[in-house]
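Internal tracking record. Fields below are filled automatically when a chain is submitted to the structure queue. Please do not edit lines marked as system-generated. If the sequence contains nonstandard residues, flag them in the REMARKS field before resubmitting.
Queue: standard
Priority: normal
Entity type: single polypeptide chain
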Amino acid sequence: MPDIARETTQPCPECGTQIRSDSRFTLWCAACDWNVDPEEPRPDTGRLDRAERALARRHGEQLLAEMLSGREPRLRRDASAVTATALALTVHGVTLALAVGGVWCMVAGWGGVGMVAGLVLVVLAWALAPRVRRLPDDRPVLFRADAPNSSPWWTRWRRRSAPAACTRSPWTGASTPAS
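SYSTEM-GENERATED OUTPUT FOLLOWS
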């Protein structure tokens, strides 16, 4: 595996504290907050920008408080999460409806105008369908063993709930420990 990150140590230009830095991230000092926000502050050009910045600040502070509390992060079920889920289901539902409708038009109108309409609907569904792309070769791949605390909540819950549980492998039929 290629060298993922280079770690260096250098003194902070503000307070002189030794800073350990990783080449993948912005360099900053935890002691004096030097370079925490390396970009120049953007002026608020209107009410919408001020409202967006206030919401971002409020949600960021809520997330920080939740992470610092030491409790297990909980699944969000607020209005924005429900809205995002509903929007995603709607988009995927429309794509599925276009594909099914296109196939139905092609089958029902075999040899006629329905074939053209069905083909247009199937092509449109194909164009709108989500794509799963491969990672670029120059990007690092992070495996679960490299970052054990970044696994999804259900994996951590399963490990805590039933660490000795075993599951049957559908391919071999052998009993394997749950991971």
